[in-house]
Give the backbone structure.
Amino acid sequence: MAERKIETTSTMTLYEWASLAEDVQELVRRAKAAAENAYAPYSGFLVGAAVMLQDGQFYSANNQENVCFPVGVCAERILLGYTHANFPNVPPVKMAIVARRAAGENDYATVTPCGLCRQSISEYELKFRLPIDIYMYMPSGDVLHAHGIEQLLPLKFEDLNQ
Ligand SMILES: [Zn+2]
């Protein structure tokens, strides 16, 4: 039996700050502010995430580490868990993620959602049947945009079961 290659592709857009829509700028500002309150005494990697729900409301969260490392939870999953716990019928439509190396310094780091968070984002897209626009802040001040988790998680779990 012959074999053949199957390729997946991702398409993302890098935006300069000034070209971002006002609501996306606000989302990133809120993620930046949330990163300042991250509890990351072990890694020093401060992550903030902000989400805009379909009703236009903004919420934010940050990573919470633990001395027992696996217990720590990422900003994105804390945020999506909180919003879905409190607003289970309002889909998240936009999310921004910001990270920095140490509090109090202008030292931003490039960040994308980890594998667990990608699967978690996928879950809420699956539930609401709506893609979540994901905006990842870059140290340059530019913002990388993925339209839906599919761009970051090809061949995601749900795809194999439908
Ligand atoms: Zn994560």
Notes: The radius of gyration is 16 Å.
